[in-house]
Amino acid sequence: ILSERPEQTPGSAVVPSIEGTRPILVEVQALTAPTPLALPRRTAIGLDHNKTSVLVAVLEKKIGMTLYNQDVFLNVAGGIRLNEPGVDLGIIAAIVSSKLEQPVPSRTAVCGEIGLTGEVRAVSQIGQRLKEAERLGFTHCILPKNNLKNIPDTIKMKLTGVETVSQAISRLFNYTAKRQE
Question: What's the confidence (pLDDT) of residue 7?
Fold first, then answer.
């Protein structure tokens, strides 16, 4: 699934997801573009449309990113359908990457559930997710701070725990939120 992923390209984030009982790394792609329409489009392929709208609203409200005048298109590469909350932070990373025209670092994976108040919540089976990311050559992961206490000793990659969307975006893109959470 990741073999055709263009590295150092804005609008792409790799997320360690759990499908059934198996960890799988997937690429979430985003494209933001100015729209002349009164109502911007929110299109999601392989993701829940409602979740997409909620995450865009969190970016607008919690970090002050202007997206009300942007179409937002999302796609999960490989035709996979993602329904688990652990991919939320990856979706946000891909959107911000596209909007800022800055790539997510190529060997960095991102995972975490996002709440309506902008908090990054712990995800299940974090050890399995990280083992799979490490096995596929990833050297860094942005993850919920509350997951740091459950990391197996065998994981050697650099881990950055975050509590809020603002912290995650700051770590990934050196971007300062215009609004405080």
Answer: 73
